[in-house]
Design brief:
129 residues; 33% strand; 2 helices; alpha+beta; 8 strands; four-stranded antiparallel beta sheet
Length: 129
Amino acid sequence: MGISMARIDYAPNGGLNPPHTHPRATEILLVLEGTLAVGFVTSNPDNRLITKVLYPGDVFVFPIGLIHFQVNIGQASAVAVAANAVFGSNPPINPDVLAKAFQLDKNIVYYLQKQFGGSVGQGPWDDMP
């Protein structure tokens, strides 16, 4: 369905998600903890490296099909979530479900739902008996 998501935990001092591609999807990365250096290589003809240092709350987009990577440049562990449709659905996925799935505080789930433009709050099944 073109949707993927992952919680990524990076070891301190160089924990790495090595260079890779996603040929059929753009990736959105949200840093929850730590400091990550991220980058991707543009397409031909210039094959230019685009890099950025990310801190908690920062979001970065890796365009479809381009080689990209992340590395923890901090002294402590780092955590990021790579997702879009999961936090941006309308109606929303129940925050309790997302908090348990990603091992996050529910307030962080609310924050992510706001950032990805989805509805915030309880899912449609919460009113069911």
